[in-house]
């Protein structure tokens, strides 16, 4: 709970610790890498879902707890998968593969953002990647769709070609705003510096 800030102006969670299986018990430790330590802003719909789950809990309590075992123990992956995930996937019905993993939600999150045109650096930071190279290596196939959209956008903004002059240069029609711009003379040293 101490890293979950639902009442902030921009609600967020700080990822500072990871639950790990060590010596036959679950313990909190440092995340895998330095870039795994990060702040993630939370969408309003998720904040609404989390509020009732944290109501009445102390700052050192876990958001998700085991039902059996010692009160207050954290809900770990294996327990969550066995008790809740499998049932939820089955209840989701047609269109949701039965072999979907919890980790696939992370991939879905990244894919949604990249397909919506979010910058890879933003997605990399949310995922805890140390660089956009990792993000591009894992999700590069998704950005093909974004690249197609970018080409369509640029194509729509380019002026129509009217003709070519004797030297083969494309002649275009300037917009009224472009007509008002000063003429650029590349022979002037001050123009080259600009």
From TrEMBL:
The keyword Acetylation appears for this protein: no
Protein name as it appears in the record: Phage integrase family protein
GO molecular function list: DNA binding
GO biological process terms held by the UniProt record: DNA integration; DNA recombination
Transmembrane region(s): none
Domain Tyr recombinase: 1-152
Organism annotation: Geodermatophilus sabuli
PROSITE patterns: TYR_RECOMBINASE
